[in-house]
Amino acid sequence: MFAAPLAPIHASVTNDNSTADVGEAIFRHGIQGSGEPLEATREAGVRLYGADAACINCHRPSGLGAKAGRNSIPPITGRYLLHPRTTNMEDIDLPYVDGMRADRDPYTDETIARAIRSGLNSEGKPLSYLMPQFALNDTDMTALIAYLKRLDKRRPLGVTDTVLHFATIITPDADPVKRRGMLDVLEHYFADKNASPLGATPRLRTSRKMMFMVNRRWQLHVWDLTGPAATWEAQLKRHLAEEPVFAVVSGLGGKTWAPVHAFCEHEAIPCLFPNVEAPVGTGNDFYSLYFSKGVMLEADLIAKKILDAGSGTVAKNVRQIYRADDSGEAGAQELDAALKHHGISVSSRVLAPGERIANALRGVAGTDVIVLWLRPADIAALPTTPMPAVVFMSGLMGGLERSPLPSSWRGSTRLAYPFDLPDRRRVRVDYALGWFSIRRIPVVSIQVQADTYLACGLLAETLSHMVDTFVRDYLVERIEDMLERRILTGYYPRLTLASGQRFASKGGYIVRFAEPDGMRLVADGDWIVP
Questions:
Q1: Residues in CB range of 402: below 8 A, 6 or more apart
Q2: DSSP string, 112-177
Q3: Read out DSSP for 50-72?
Q4: Over the stretch 119-147, which tens digit does the pLDDT of each residue have?
Q5: What is the pLDDT of residue 66?
Q6: For a tag site, which of 6, 254, 326, 369 has the least CB within 10 Å?
Q7: How far is CA 155 from the centre of its chain?
C-alpha cells in the first residue's frame, strides 16, 4: 500500500500525442513518462518492474480483462468503470463481458487513481489480491486514465446493427486451384450462417443466462490483389476505405505474405489463419494468427533431425535446392541460419525458370545432405537413379503424402511434415469432408480447404461467446483463450495460443514413405517441437 495522500486527478486531459503516448506506454509496456520502468507491489510484498508490471498482462490489449483460473479480471475501459450504479442491466448500454459489475458505485478519476495506487475499489473496499498497487505520479496517472477512456470504441469498423463484414485476401501469385477451393468453403460457410432466420434477439444481461449467437448476417468481401508486392499495402488501404471490415478470415498467399501482414498490424485488423506457406511473425505482432510457421517450421524440423547425433544424419555439408520466387526461399533461409550456427556448411542452389532439377544434383557426394524445397512438378522430374546422399524435402510444398516422389528416392528421402499423421487426424478431417460432401464442394486442395473450414469454425465459435462486444482486440484475445479447448482441429493434433504466440501448432514429424509406391507414411520418431 502506498500511504502518500492522493492529489486530485482532473478530467481536463489534453489530447496531444505526448499524453496519449505516455498512457499507452504505461498500460502496454510498463514504461513511465520519465522513461523509467513502472513499479508495482503485489500481495506479500512481491515487486513488479517494467513490462512485468504493465496493465496489459492481466487486462489484455482490449482492456476488457480475462479469466485467471477461477478469477475474473474485470474490464477497465472508461465506460465499464464510469457507468452509473444499477441492479437492472436494462438501464445501461454495456455489452456483457466476464468480470463486469454494474451494482457498484461508478468510478471517478479520483477513485480510479485510488484503485491503481492503493488497491481500493470505487466504494473503498479492497480489490482482488491479483491487483498490484502502482507508484504513479499525477501526470502519469492522468495520462493512464485518459488512455483507459480512449480504449472504448463504440462503433468498430465493419459492424452494423444487422451485418458483420469480413474480408479474405488473395495475393496475385496464389495457386488458382487452391483459390477456388478456399472460396468454395468460405462462400458456403457464410451462406450457411446467413440461412438461419435473422431477427431481434434479447441482449445478454446476466452471467447466469446462456450466451447466444450474435444475430447478424455475415458479409464476405474478396480482396484480390494485383501487381508487385510493393503495391499491395496501398491496394489494401483502398479496399478497407471502400469496404470496412471487422476482421480478415482465411486468405491465400504465394511466396510472400509480408505486405498483408504489415497492413493488418498497422490497421489493427485481426487476420485469422490465412493459408500461407511462409507466414510472418515478430515478437511485437498481435493481430495476425497462423495455424503454423509453414516452411519455417519444416526447416526447424529438418535442422533438429540433422543435428541429432543419434539419427545418423549429421553432415558437414548441406545443399538446398529451391526455385526463385517461391516459398522455398524462406524455408532455405531459416534452415541456413539454424545450421550455420552449429558450424555446418550450407549452400543453396536456385533453379532458374525452366531449368531442370537434374542440373542442380550434379556432383552430390554420399556425405552430403540434400534438402529439396520444390513443387510436385519438380519432384516428379527427379532422375530415376537414386541419390547417394541423405535427402530431406518439404512435405508442405511437395504434396505431403500425395507427393510424386520417384520410388527409387523413397528409401533415402525424409519429408518434413508439419501436421498430424493421416491415420491420427482422419476423424477430425472427415468431419470437414462430410460437410464438403453435403454441400457438393469439390475437394481440390484438401489441406487448404480443411484449414479454411477450421478458420471459419473458430471465428463462429468465438463470436458466439463475445455476444455483442465487437472489439477487434477482444476477438483476438477470445480466440487465444478458447483455442486450446477446440476438439475438432483438422490437420493439427493440438492448437494453442498463449499470449504473444502467433503460431497455433508448434511441431510436426519427420516421415518417410512405407513402400516404394502408395501414400502410407511412417514417422521417424515422435512428434517434434523444435
A1: 376, 519
A2: HHHHHHH-B-TTS-B--TT--EE---HHHHHHHHHHHHHT--SS-TTB-SSEEEEEEEE-TTS-HH
A3: GGGG-THHHHTTTSS-EEETTEE
A4: 999 999 999 888 999 999 999 999 999 99
A5: 83
A6: 6
A7: 24
Mean pLDDT (the chain, rounded): 89
* Three cell numbers written together for 465: 461467446
- Give the model confidence (pLDDT) of 170-188 as tens digits: 999 999 999 999 999 999 9
Q: Look up residue 357 and give its three cell numbers.
A: 532439377
- For residues 130 and 14, the model is more confident at 130
- Rounded distance between C-alpha atoms, residue 63 and residue 99, angstroms: 12
pLDDT exceeds cutoff 60 at 197: no
SS3 label, residue 11: coil
> Distance between CA atoms of 37 and 50, rounded to whole angstroms?
4
The answer to which of 127-141, 200-214, 222-236, 423-437 has the lowest mean pLDDT is: 200-214
Q: 327 — alpha (psi -120 to 50), left (phi > 0) or beta?
A: alpha
Domains and CATH numbers, the chain: 17-150 (no CATH), 163-294+422-499 (3.40.50.2300), 297-417+510-523 (3.40.50.2300)
CB of 324 within 8 A of CB of 353?
A: yes
Residues, the chain, total?
A: 530
Distances (CA, A) of 267 to 225, 264, 272, 336: 17, 5, 14, 33
Burial 365-389 (b: 16+ CB within 10 A, else e): eeebbbbbbbbeebbeebeeebbeb
Q: Give the contacts of 118 (CB within 8 A, at least 6 positions apart).
A: 1, 2, 6, 133
Burial 285-304 (b: 16+ CB within 10 A, else e): bbbbbbbbbbbbbbbbbbbb
**Count of beta carbons in the 10 Å neighbourhood of residue 480:** 21
Strands 39-42 and 509-513: unpaired
> Exposure pattern of 270-280 as b/e (b: 16+ CB <10 Å)?
bbbbbbbbbbb
- 64-73, 282-291, 417-426: which range is least confident on average? 64-73
Burial class (CB in 10 A: 0-12, 13-18, 19+), 61: buried
Cell of 174: 496464389
Q: Which residues contact 500 (CB under 8 A, 6 or more apart)?
A: 283
pLDDT tens per residue across span 325-380: 899 999 999 999 999 888 888 999 999 999 999 999 988 887 889 999 999 999 99
Distance of alpha carbon 381 from alpha carbon 389, whole angstroms: 18
Q: Which helix (H) or strand (E) holds 462?
A: helix 446-466
3-state SS, one letter per residue, for 368-392: EEEEEECCHHHHHCCCCCCCCCEEE
Picking from 132, 114, 121, 118, the residue whose alpha carbon sits closest to that of residue 99 is 121
pTM of the model: 0.90
